[in-house]
Write a structure and sequence with these properties.
7-stranded mixed beta sheet; 707 residues; Dna Ligase, domain 1; alpha/beta; Rossmann fold; 29 strands; 4 domains
Amino acid sequence: MRPLYRYAQLDRLLNPQSIAIIGASARPGAFGERVLSNLCDYRGRIYLVNSRYERIGDRPCYPSLAALPEPIDCAVITVAREAVDEVAEQCIAAGAGGMIVFASGYAETGKPDRIAQQQRLVQRARESGVPLIGPNCIGAVNHRLRSRITFMPYAAMLPPRPGAVGIVSQSGALGFGLEQAMQHGTPISHVLTSGNSSDVDMADYVAFLADEPSCSVIALLFEGMSDPQRLIAACERAWAVNKPVVVCKLATGEFGAQAAMSHTGSLAGSQAAYRAAFARAGVVLVEDFEALMETAAFFAKAPTLPKARGVAVLATSGGAAIMAADKAELHGVALPQPDAPAMAVLQARIPEFGSTRNPCDVTAQVMNDPLSLPACADALLDDPNYGALIIPMVFSGPLSGIRVPYYNTLARRTGKPVINIWLTEWLEGNGAAAMESDPHVVLFRSMDRAFAAIAAWHRRADLRMAPRVTGIRLAPAGAREAAASLLATASGTLTERESKAILAPYGIPVVQEVLVQTADEAVAVAAGTGYPVVVKVESPDLPHKTEAGVIRLNLHNEAELRAAFAAVMANAARVSPAPRISGVLVQPLVPAGVEIMIGARVDPLFGPLVVVGLGGILVELLKDTAIGLAPVSAEEATTMLDRLKGRAALHGFRGSPPVDIAALAGIIARASEFIADHAGEVAEIDINPLICDGARILAVDALIVKS
């Protein structure tokens, strides 16, 4: 992994005290002319470089970088691609703090010669220690210095206020579109785009903003990268200084994912791996582009730890209250009822045709009693049950903006955010900009996005309070060596029997079986183990036994066993091409229980992953799974189980005993240790199903695919 740039290495480039525009021009529309125009409010020193001009406007124009009176911090290269290499050498020789290259036509074309040209440019930048942004880049903006180093049209720049959001965008155009949130109140510190990300990339930007004092929250619009571990390392740096990183990931489809023999490969694709990596790094992941800036602004204003997990809703509309209840349930946000002191205030202020239950409906009577809403809001946020107050704004009227200073005072006094949900279709109506620009009042334009952000706030708080458990191995001593010895003699797709023998040293409880060649041998084995039994054809070429019809369950006597033996062998014989068959497994039938699937695979970008979900055939039907970066601790495995939509099945369902969660989490953790230990020789594993009945947990089938 290439090391991240340190803050000091990018400081001159991204916090420049001097900027040189190389290829400066007086021609309207030229990149050099546009950049100069966009720097009209810049607080540093500007130098123009172009040998064809002596002056541009009232500024002198220098023939070369060598002629400048000082080494410049940021060299903006606006010349055509064919001239970039020569200019870059001049920047390096002149001791520039960094370079920004706008020119296109490099690696993005896919042409070998252009790829090589970009590689040469990057090699020179790294050899010289002069960081390079681009090529094919739109630019970078620093609102504190009012440096707008871009050819994009000028937008009014405001100095960042406390709670400013730093924007990092892999898409230049979308990044500058996000910046326009500033026009309706969101403070912005930086807009950083990476173009081809040939040298300075999104990971470097995130690491820089983690240490940048003017930035409170990092908003990242992200598509993908060849070395995502660098981005995770940057997010961990931001976590270390308690600076939230909010990410919207584009390109979430799984097309082109590596084909896999087991369920695991289709369930643990690249998007799932990104989710797991972001979750471990404490990143807040939003599902939609529209949620990125709203959520980032929320985290800039909300305290790190909520004072309580409950949320109060104070609506002037019964419909808005119902909407809030629906979204709270969807996102798992608690709406507890108020304690007696708060309830007394609500009952005194809310008419009988309203509702004092949370979510509260104060009704439109607030128009006749302007003090009722503030009184109820005070009472609710003073209630220790609540860590935040939601006030849906269903209509923009004269009072919408008047109440903002009161909400500010209330939020500051209690240390709890006041969240306004702007439900009116007059998007920029009275009060909207005042709410967004207020440092303590939050505005969302979606009830769903608001509750999603609150749920993410709670999850992040849980992660910050939880101890980081690392380096604790649960696998028995000698497990790695024992499994490695067995793996050394195997190849390709291992049989169930071979797979279970390799997993057993890691403390994975597996059902015992006997391999037989004839029906008579099967009957003899069953006589020893007792009925009922299961028979399965053993073949490395039949990983999915149910689909091939080579498994029979719940056989209660000799006659059923002989018939089943004949049937599975006949079905195996019908498979084309003919599979290799080593015999038939006879196993005792494991009584019914909750079926869990544990899988693991080695991802080409993230390395070993572990996946858990409801087992049997439901795993592919429901796709209710949770992914973790292997190895996971038992605590992380427990969290993965808690993320399953079907988790209620684990806690006792319709009279079944609750599953021993601690034991199951330990098995998941040990399976993750197996894939982490043997990532160089194992491509994937699939333990499915793992039958759980109270404290009895047994793997009745397993598959290992070697790499």
